[in-house]
Amino acid sequence: MYRKILITTDGSAVSSKTACAGVAFAEQMKAEVLVLFVAPEYQYPIYVEIIPPSYPSEDEYRAAMLRAGQEHTQDVVDSCAKRGVPCEAVTAFAESAALKIVDVAEKHRCDLIFMGSHGRSGWGQLLLGSVTNKVLSHAKTPVLVHRLIKEPGSK
């Protein structure tokens, strides 16, 4: 049914749990995985006229974010390898994580976007589910939202 599944991660415990569920789902579907970490674009400090010497250059920032992306996606890559699921990891830069997720899914011809929801309601849903909600409202690709009933590490 699904041949290529995009799994998003931000490195948090919640997204790691979601990614594990996504890999298990991909294994059941006999699909390959594209795991994505979206880093914010470099921001020049707008509050000063001269960039402070301690402020990272754009190249330094991009290198640090690429390393972070590799670290955050490595667990998914390793999990896929253990399960025999083909996997590719991508780090992308964007102002809007949601729009980048939609764009990457389309460019890589993914059949499904697999992402998490914190299972919150009210203001918590509004604040913490905004990326998921934006993806749902902009994606042409089907989106499977994996809902965690409780936070990792809670009883």
Automatic annotation (TrEMBL):
Residues 1-145 form the UspA domain. Pfam families: Usp (PF00582). Gene3D superfamilies: HUPs. It comes from the Bacteria. InterPro entries: Rossmann-like_a/b/a_fold (IPR014729), Universal_stress_UspA (IPR006015), UspA (IPR006016). Belongs to the universal stress protein A family. This is Universal stress protein. It comes from Rugamonas rivuli.
